[in-house]
Amino acid sequence: MNRDLSMKDKFSITRMTEQELNDIALVWAEAEGWNPGIHDATSFYAQDPHGFFIGRLGDEPIACAAATTYSDSFAFFGLYLVKIPFRYQGYGMQMTQKRLDYVGERIIGLDGVLAMCDKYAEIGFRPAHMNIRHQGRASQASKVMHPCISIIQPSLFPAIMDYDLECFPAPRAAFLNKWLNPTEGLGLVYLDGSEVKGYGVIRKTVNGNKIGPLFADNQEIAEAILKGLLNHIPNETFFLDTPEPNKMALRLASLHQMEPCFSVLRMYRNGRPKMNIYKIFGITTFELG
Predict the structure, then answer these.
(1) Do residues 82 and 159 share a domain?
(2) Interacting residues of 137 by C-beta distance below 8 A, sequence separation 6+
(3) pLDDT digits (tens, 9 = 90+) for 235-282
(4) Hey, which end of the chain has fewer CB within 10 Å, N or C?
């Protein structure tokens, strides 16, 4: 009997399969109100299939967490959840320690819910800036598309990935190869001749649609991409996650009558990565950075 009890109560951490990521972690994220994309698991898992962890008490899944590695110098933490009956019992810290062991001395980013930021500070994360989720509603579709806007084609992937490095601190080709051509979504690029000046992606989520990333050289280009993406979802709800230091991004959200609905704190451990935040009008995801 004692052996059965000890096995039942034993906490173990293993790597998630892609199916578990889709059926457990993202379902829990939906229940938390995080509104994940319907098809996010495929893109997430492609970037780092070793970076998704599930914690079980006996056979019962009770916790999950992601530690997505992008390079030898950068990783991102996300999808950190412990089921309510098992919170404040040390399981979450064990999940975090597992992630820290996995990523080693890389710079680590995360978007922390405000209630958890003191805990992250205790393990070495330092605040960078707020990221603000805005909610809006698309108007009727326009038949007019800006002449520099095109649907992203595979032939443009290399140029877009080069541009992405101005706004994201590490290469993420495995992720973008899936993300740029979303199921139930759309990717658009702004081209000046053959030169990429910005790009954006919209995807279907549990509630409405999310735009991310939205990267652009300036507000005018971001506006053109945003209008093109919104043409794809006439009269539907959409969300855009904007970095607070980019006042042009906040103005863009205001121009489209979007309302702030949620905020997280971007934090880093082991230093800060280099990227041009003033080209970031919408971050890619809170889960993977």
Answers:
(1) no
(2) 235, 236, 237, 238
(3) 999 999 999 999 999 999 999 999 999 999 999 999 999 999 999 999
(4) N
CA distance 236 to 156: 28
> Residue 156 in 3-state DSSP?
helix
Strands 237-243 and 209-216: parallel
Amino acid at 219: Q
Residues 143 and 273 in one domain: yes
Q: For residues 82 and 141, state if they share a domain.
A: no
Q: Whole-model pTM above 0.90? A: yes
Tally of structural domains, the chain = 2
Q: Which residues contact 243 (CB under 8 A, 6 or more apart)?
A: 129, 130, 131, 132, 249, 266, 277, 280, 283
Structural domain including 64 reads 2-123
Name the helix (H) or strand (E) containing 249: helix 247-255
- Rg value, the chain, Cα: 19
Same-domain check for residues 148 and 274: yes
Name which of 22, 35, 14, 95 is nearest 286 in CA terms. Answer: 35
Are residues 230 and 238 in contact, defined by beta-carbon separation less than 8 angstroms?
yes
> What amino acid occupies position 190?
Y
The residue from 79, 95, 123 where one domain ends is 123
* Closest by CA position to 112, among listed 258, 288, 286, 237: 286
Residue type present at position 203: R
